[in-house]
């Protein structure tokens, strides 16, 4: 039985090399990036049996996405579209005092037409856990219906159905995200989000330690997991909050850290770890992901364990 199935869109990200700007760059790096595939890669680094499902453009660009994921050992099951295009993402990293620039060009992406009929729903129903990111829901009404079908089919497993708010203001408004995602919350067992996304999408105020139990109580989540940027992360489960401080690192590329966190957390749960242990694993993984260029967390399970144990011994 597959442990984790992730379902969603993956774009090709183009980023300038060195300190160049998108406006003037003539040489760019290309990476596959998507919340669900990034989570799949991170989870697989810990030995989790994971499959990524999607629909892609039947073009060299769509095949480029699959090739890169295969290089990371991910099993993919893809429906190929002759009509839909391959989504793109353009990313310029921040250089103090410049802010980062991210442009999502995903309108008309093949995944926007993905239906349950394009997916192996039996695989989803039999998996221990399923995961979808909110940015996939932003693509179309069809994607909304498919995302909901996936979550409902996956609820009831060991780690069950998991959703990340994954809010992208470039794709939709916070109000549209709130209206759409809260409608599927009854099919979600574990909610992941950044602290800022909870405030923006769910229109909440307060600190993370107040937000997590409030959100869990209102929508009856089994678990709420919040990342807090430089302040670390926390998990609320069975009336108890566990938190971990962030681990200071040299940041090379911050874009993959949240997805790496989610993948590592789910991998630990599926390996039988308690939520507090999963949190330590996830924070350490996110810290290492910040030191790696690109959105995919090519971490090593042993280095994650060493880092987590080192900071736990210091009272981390």
TrEMBL record:
Keywords of this entry: Kinase, Transferase
Pfam families: PfkB
MF terms (GO), sorted A to Z: kinase activity
InterPro entries: PfkB_Carbo_kinase, PfkB_dom, Ribokinase-like
Positions of the Carbohydrate kinase PfkB domain: 3-295
Family the entry assigns: Belongs to the carbohydrate kinase PfkB family.
The name this protein goes by in its record: Sugar kinase, ribokinase family
Native species: Halapricum desulfuricans
Gene (name only): rbsK3
